[in-house]
Amino acid sequence: MVDRKIKAVILAAGVGSRIKPLTDNCPKSLLKINGKTILEMMISHIQTCGISEVVFVLGYLQDQIKNYVKTQFPDLVVHFITNEKYEVTNTGYSLMLTKNFVLDSTFIKFDADVVFDINILKSLIASEYDNCLCIDKNINLDAEEIKVIIRDKNRVVKASKTVKPLDAIGESIGIEKISSEAAQALFSELELMMKDEQYYQEYYEAVYERLIEKDVPFHALDISGLKWTEIDTQEDFMMAENIFSQSA
Length: 248
Fold this sequence. Notes:
With 248 residues, the chain is of the alpha/beta class. The protein contains eight helices and 13 strands. The chain has a single domain, classed as Spore Coat Polysaccharide Biosynthesis Protein SpsA, Chain A. Helix 2 (62-72) links the parallel strand 4 (53-58) and strand 5 (77-82). Helix 6 packs across helix 7.
């Protein structure tokens, strides 16, 4: 059984501009991969793993997501937060908005455009690490990926797009576990950052790095070999349909 205090945070405020026109009238998380929406697959995994409370950060076409979740998952305890500045902010700002719902809890944060094998989530929940990033080592790294450098015993030293591919152990896939202890420092740091509009476009990894510099331990969980993909482009979308096809 999962600790009942564990919650899920799903960041789903973005426009998904790189995959247009598929997102012209549909939020990216409601696109269907082989007949199932990205969100349906994600929430089903979350529920199967014993997590019953989910915090959503919404923005673009948010009513579609609200109606979908309420209809398809009536038993889920949900909290909807609106990022009113979704057009000019990024995932760091969206994560900051969840403070009042998860500050005293361990939580698992999901990017709403990641399709993944349930065993990734099971491994993350079971991991001995309090603060943990899921890392795929079997991947070709380029400028777009969040690349991770680790040192002894899987301790994360850096997680950023600016990391040189040759220095990185792998890619962070957009699913992390954050302890209730680290959450206190995380939200304090985020609120400090977001007082300055120059940080509006920062990804949440920027705050992880600030905590790492203050010696808050983050570790890498190797999920190499398990299926997952992030859907940013139409090419990613087609890849997801292939990876998660019924016959695969």
